[in-house]
Amino acid sequence: MSKLLWQPAEDRIKTTNMYGFMTLVNKTYDKNFKAYPELWEWSVENIEDFWTIAWDFLDIKAFSPFEKAIDDPQKMPGAKFFVNSKLNFAQNLLRFKDDRLALVFRGEDSVRRTLTYEKLYDEVAKTAASLKKMGIQKGDRVVGFVPNMPESIIAMLAAASLGAIWSSCSPDFGIKGVLDRFGQTQPKVLFTADGYFFKGKPMDSIERIAGIVKEIPSIEKIVVIPYVSDAPDTSSLPNAILFEDFKDPEATQITFEPMDFDDPLYIMYSSGTTGLPKCMVQSQGGVLLHQKKELVLHTDLKQDDTIFYFTTCGWMMWNWLTASLSVGATLVLYDGNPFHPGPDALWKMAQDEKITIFGTSAGYIEALKNAGVKPGRQFDLSALKSVLSTGSPLSDENFEFIYKEVKQDLQLSSISGGSDLNGCFALGNPMGPVYSGELQCRGLGMKVYAYDENAQPTIGKQAELVCAAPFPSMPIFFWGDDDGSKYHSAYFDEYPGIWTHGDFIMVTEHGGVIMFGRSDATLNPGGVRIGTAEIYRRLDAMEELEDSVIVGQSWNNDVRVILFVKIAQGFELDEALQTKIKKDIRANASPRHVPAKIIACPDVPYTLNMKKVELAVKKMIEGKEVKNKDALKNPEALDFFGNITELKS
Fold first, then answer.
1. Selection from 502, 503, 492, 500 nearest residue 78 by Cα
2. Which has fewest Cβ within 10 Å: 79, 87, 235, 616?
3. 3-state class of 368 per DSSP?
4. Can you tell me the distance from the alpha carbon of 384 to that of 406, in angstroms, rounded to the nearest whole number?
5. What pLDDT, in 10s, does the model give residues 168-217?
6. What does the pLDDT read at residue 330?
7. Are 199 and 135 in contact (CB under 8 A)?
8. pLDDT of residue 631
9. Using an 8 Å Cβ cutoff, are 561 and 552 in contact?
10. Closest by CA position to 595, among listed 614, 613, 579
């Protein structure tokens, strides 16, 4: 039985947005709901009514009304939401043109910059006008290779205001990692910074940018944001212009392009586990409605809140955080290492900025605990009302660490979903209790179950996470997937008409959710999901290696990357080769891909159709049984991976 850690006071419950929403549902539909579980049950059994009233409660700004919230609640994929409505995502995020703070930017260089909502609107107007002058229009792709800074949000909103499609990568991605993503979608404009900071050191990006644009001929303009240098040298970049020079100084107003609810807004990327990353296209209205539901109802975000999430522009939490502008809250952006100059850096920032909602990853919380940081004793966190954690399951010990060393009276929301939906399947409930190791609830309107081996919903048992009804932020399609086959196989092959997500979960008796990790081979070091294919592409190019297999090993409430290599004849795994492998992966994939340990192995196990069996290797190193060895071409190769001494420290 999970340990009860927090119960909101009655007066706190009645001031939440969720309570206000439940009251409206009771009044509108003649119900008498008193708690979240019955509200959730109603929301998933009455999909059309739920999304209709959610649209009204969340105050979605639209050019024209919708005919109905959903055309066919039984159709998945393919259901159409808010048919005939016209809206613009950027308009909903820029509705507040006043002198309240919209963005606070804090970087490793200690410089603090702020933008009011009025100034943000003005900056987007100037950027959008210049994009429009160069011919950017509905459906064009605009991309960012950018740190988490105000200019990233300005560029995204400018693109979205015109109906262009935005996608972004973090600047610590290597050239190949960026090309694998942007190279598939033929962008016309690249926004980028000249570099970024990491552990106090400026990291120049110009050389990598030159390598990227050389391989993507569709890019017509490179807009460079000075960050690590006041006057970056862009002479090596064709058609480059500094951001300040790009903006139209005369523009003061934005003409928002009316968009269908399901017109494209974002391209999000899968981890690239089985090849090139999937390019998941998500809609203007779907992202807006889904994320605003999660922020307003499940996170209890209000206009007077200050919200922070430690993220990069390559993670969906950046998109999620940005949607907070639609509420009129203040967003705190941070770029850099969260432990620089010390492990308490983000909590000093939380004190100074009076952050009310603090978001991070489970890996960060584990590192914080191990570093001996006691934020609640070291800083004034009186403004803090919620801590959010995602990226990987948060351990029981770290649930208790937050309540012991951060603050006793706060909502700790462990949340889980993915880039696939740009949101969550399970997350926080500000009206409900927090139990150790549990996500508080399944999201409103999300018909999420744990399916057992007989495809039946189960309680109190580990099973497959499924969603049995359509939701607005489902991808509208995959880029380049003309017949829809990749989309279908990603989610709907296992159970036709039902979304299978690839997570193992347990739904508890009181409606909470316990996560047991991915049911595929994706790695999750530090709570950041990464794919093995991106590493294999680097290793396959090395003559010293005949083969390799890479897995994640559960370690100290996190995951560490373990690389096994089969050395080619005439070579050996010495220190020089280990350094070469790590350096190459760091430069061309990202620092997060670098393995914690590299171990030589005699052979790599494969299935009969020649697929590496990463999950079987992972089971072996963790002492678990591998049942279906008959499916392997060389089952004897697995024997090496059991009881390896090097993996015990």
1. 492
2. 235
3. helix
4. 9
5. 998 988 788 889 899 999 999 999 999 998 888 899 999 999 999 999 99
6. 98
7. no
8. 47
9. yes
10. 579
